[in-house]
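INFO worker-7 received task bundle
INFO bundle size: 2
INFO processing item 0
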Amino acid sequence: MTTEAYRVARAATRLKAAFAVAVGMNLVEATWDPSGLVWAAARLAATALFTIALVAYAALRVREWRRTRGERP
């Protein structure tokens, strides 16, 4: 496995973790109505983490795709 493949795998793991946190927060909000400044800050943080993880994963996948596409004979 190449270094680039390890980076993509790590990005995928981070994306999975961010997704799990977002789903968990949605489940909490569905069963209980948390409110307040702390909850709003936590939601914003989770949103930012998920967005950053998604963009990083997509960018690495596109970069890997372009690299492998360019290696064809």
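INFO item 0 finished
INFO processing item 1
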Amino acid sequence: MSRTPSPTAQDFVPFATAALDFHRALNLPGGPLVTSRAELDALHSHLVSLYELLDAHAVRVGQLLPAEGNHLRATRTRIWQAADHLHAAYHTAPRTDSGEVPDREACRSGLPEGAPELTICQRHQRTAHLVRRRTTPTDLHTPFTGLIRH
């Protein structure tokens, strides 16, 4: 079985990387000092998509090459942790309409703001379900040491 993609396969990952680089170069130097909730939502969406891509690779590769699969699974876990932090950052960022920062109790209530702002929460919960099926609690809470099980 060949590990290289077919010559007709489209590789869009470089375009996604270029788009992020372009966004950073255009928007951060002269942009606001505080990250908007809309940008945090968009970044969360990007990381969740990256998580799903890495998950698909980890599942396929892990069956053929266990060592590579372990590295991909570890990467997938770290991307989820980053998405989890972005979700938390979203809920501590100032609200768009009032500029107020929600208190911790409001965020813990589960539905602090209602639709459509909760799109990030729906995406996060849907992905968290997959994370719980694919990852052990130990994997999620162990600090990364760079060591991968072989």
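INFO item 1 finished
INFO post-check item 1: The two ends are 22 Å apart (CA to CA).
INFO post-check item 1: The CA atoms of residues 78 and 144 lie 8 Å apart.
INFO worker-7 idle
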